[in-house]
Amino acid sequence: QVHLVESGGGLVQAGGSLRLSCAASGSGLSIATMVWYRQVPEKQRELVATVTSRGTTRYADSVKGRFTVSRDNAKNTVDLQMNSLKPEDTAVYYCYAAVFIGLSLHDYWGQGTQVTVSS
Length: 119
Fold this sequence. Notes:
Radius of gyration: 14 Å
Structural class: mainly beta
């Protein structure tokens, strides 16, 4: 069983910074892509940033130049450094991991962490 646990959310003023972390627990994990999503009430979950096992990253246009995703394969962790935060970044942020179990990829989600940016 794989568990993802996020941390680092909170309340910050516009222009400030937060760093989110996500740790995957489980023995002998082989994790493909790790992703940060976010969601606000009554809207679809939005992809924020992805990082592959080789370190290739991709960002939503809305966060390019402000957010940085990084990953530690040895520790099975993924971080999201968020700078120059805007009120529209307010959301619940979720960590996602695609994990190989045998030859199959399985989806795992964290419980989410609230980020609130005040104007």
